[in-house]
Amino acid sequence: MKGIYKFNFDNVLKDKIGETGISVDEIDELRDFTNLAKANVTKKYEKGDLGFIEVLNEDLEIYEEVKELSKEFDYIIIIGIGGSILGSKAIHQGIYGSSNTYHPKVFYLDNSDPEKIYETLKAVKLEKTLIFVISKSGNTVETLANYFVIKKHMDKNNITPAKPNFVAITGGGLLQKIADKEGYMCYKVPENVGGRFSVLSAVGLAPLACLNVDIHNLVKGAKKMNDICQTDNIFRNPALLNSLIHYKMDNTGKKISLMMPYIGRLHQFGMWYRQLWAESLGKDGNGQTPVIALGATDQHSQLQLYMDGPEDKIMTFLKVNTFKQDYSIETDYDSDLKGHKLSELINSEQLGTEKSITEKGIPNVKITLSELNEYTLGMLTYAYELQTAYSGELFCINAFNQPAVEHAKKLSHAVLKGSIKEKSYNEIKIE
Amino acid sequence: MKGIYKFNFDNVLKDKIGETGISVDEIDELRDFTNLAKANVTKKYEKGDLGFIEVLNEDLEIYEEVKELSKEFDYIIIIGIGGSILGSKAIHQGIYGSSNTYHPKVFYLDNSDPEKIYETLKAVKLEKTLIFVISKSGNTVETLANYFVIKKHMDKNNITPAKPNFVAITGGGLLQKIADKEGYMCYKVPENVGGRFSVLSAVGLAPLACLNVDIHNLVKGAKKMNDICQTDNIFRNPALLNSLIHYKMDNTGKKISLMMPYIGRLHQFGMWYRQLWAESLGKDGNGQTPVIALGATDQHSQLQLYMDGPEDKIMTFLKVNTFKQDYSIETDYDSDLKGHKLSELINSEQLGTEKSITEKGIPNVKITLSELNEYTLGMLTYAYELQTAYSGELFCINAFNQPAVEHAKKLSHAVLKGSIKEKSYNEIKIE
């Protein structure tokens, strides 16, 4: 499997967007700063802190067992939330899209919304469903709740698949205890791999192997990107360069990082990036708010704001040269579209929008993939993981924790237990 | 059909969030300012400029014809983009969710991505598919391209449904010409109804009637909200009050309007709001960037940033008291979740998160619906349309145009025609 990855940064340069921009010389002069960031990441890796790099050397044969098991099933349910599920969802949809018309069909239980579990139970046959339960801590309440409901539903209705149909992916907690007691097939989440950096560990690879994603080429792409990013020449290191660009733009008030793929299959990749960027850097008043838009669709929803609203955005275009399918636009009516392909139309919209926002002085970068397959998706995914690690260094932020959410969890627990009640003082009520 | 709508603004008040907040007195003192905004909207309506209010008085019997026709079909395709499709999608998913397991199945062609049309053609039987083609101008390129491809596909493959299967909804342009020539059933988009305000016109109601949405109760809810909002007492007018709150928060640097429903069925409503808010107010450097998150899912992705990142957000929680289905969490394992319902869990997460971000001083409002049905969704939808109209007045922005996107369209057209080519100067290429 092959593919070409291009990172273009023309449109963050001063000669393109004016004073907001940066110059090649400026980037070059920051060499000590960026090399230190890179060296610090290497140091953390050598200390054993960065599991997301270590997993590149994992033996992928360990996923043959679950892949073999999955052949007994027609449906897959993945129970998880946040980093436990966003990675596999992004990669699966990156390859197969969101139509869910391929075998096996996949369903994501990533919320504690009861209607979601109802719709899922309606859509699958549980005796033909392989169910992944994924939580690094093993104690994630939404994940456990979904598991308990499905397990009880099976027990009550005497649903007994031909082969055991639960697979746990965890690093401990109650889920580990359950897996041990029930004898579930189990994969380990390494201690040094954080949820949002876990897509190339068992968290992502075990379900993806069962969903007919070529995980060997996925990891091969990631390794290729890792090799490329060993260089100290920032103009040859797309992760480091994009990290610096976002750092500089953040410094000039671009507090929103807008990612806009021009292919539906990459929309979910945007949602994965959204967690990675937000949770890693959103600390101590710092961080950029990630916003995901889909081209060309959102030109008809968000472009007015991007063009003419507050100047608080740096954009990333994601573009694919060759689509899996294509159509010629043919008609007997008088239309300029005649004779063009749909792929030409969407890619001309990308370039037109890029030109237009560049003229407006809005900084933007572009990643172009020759085609969207496991290899190029592996490159893309890993580039963003590494970029995020570099950015932690540039912003002097620990990119690998998420301290602020613990308090909300405690309050939610207190509400559930009844020790905090809802009170309304200022309210308009309409019946 | 009934339902209760509550708008709570406790958590924007100074006594809850400190200096960032506003006070009830302050709101009261701005009476002249808000009443002028309201009066200006009324004036525009009386001048005949605000079709989104006029359509409340439309005779809904006109949709019986297309509803009757739709009974011949098992699938519905809606071809449209932006305001032509976001409204019907939001309402349909608000009632039926996104599982697409109800009859008739619905597919949205809202992009020029060739893979999307391929997946859609794979999933439907065209001879059993009613196809809406929606474009107010009648010249939207993505919409015409999708129509041309499907039409040619049917002609080439001699697919002839028992009844004519195209319905045009337009205000003119090439689509009107095509509809006339081909003899399609046709609904008019009134001149004074803009795309993003069109959900309660034919643009939304014609397809929704065919999708078994109770459009009578939808409009009834909207009318109820319209009646409520006739009052000059801002503390009884949720649209005007929320408009003022967002205006005040924008003035203190809250440049991101974050909407977070705690029920999957309202996620697409968020995407509708996203266009409404962005395109109406994102002008001349003004406007808030709308961000849509889903509770509880995004607590595990975005909450760290919301809690501890830049203080640039005002949040809106959307909450539903009663879900269509519910489950008790039962297990033999030792867990605090035992005995609770899933709906209790998700709503305790909402309240815990609300308490937590309020303690952090982040302004937030909450809309609670007793249940999510056509009536309450009608109230909700219309409240936001009216709020957006009021906001145009408060911000002194024309909320009903979108001038900035025209140039991007021209450039895209030039790219398609070959007069602008892609050139790369500063690029990292990886093979």
UniProtKB/TrEMBL annotation, chains A, B:
Entry superkingdom: Archaea
PROSITE patterns documented for this protein: P_GLUCOSE_ISOMERASE_1 (PS00765), P_GLUCOSE_ISOMERASE_2 (PS00174), P_GLUCOSE_ISOMERASE_3 (PS51463)
Catalytic activity: alpha-D-glucose 6-phosphate = beta-D-fructose 6-phosphate
Predominant location: cytoplasm
EC number: 5.3.1.9
GO molecular function: glucose-6-phosphate isomerase activity
Keyword list, A-Z: Cytoplasm, Gluconeogenesis, Glycolysis, Isomerase
Catalytic residues (positions): 279, 300, 409
Listed pathway(s): Carbohydrate degradation; glycolysis; D-glyceraldehyde 3-phosphate and glycerone phosphate from D-glucose: step 2/4; Carbohydrate biosynthesis; gluconeogenesis
Family note: Belongs to the GPI family.
Summary of the function given for this chain in its UniProt record: Catalyzes the reversible isomerization of glucose-6-phosphate to fructose-6-phosphate.
Protein name: Probable glucose-6-phosphate isomerase
Gene that encodes it: pgi
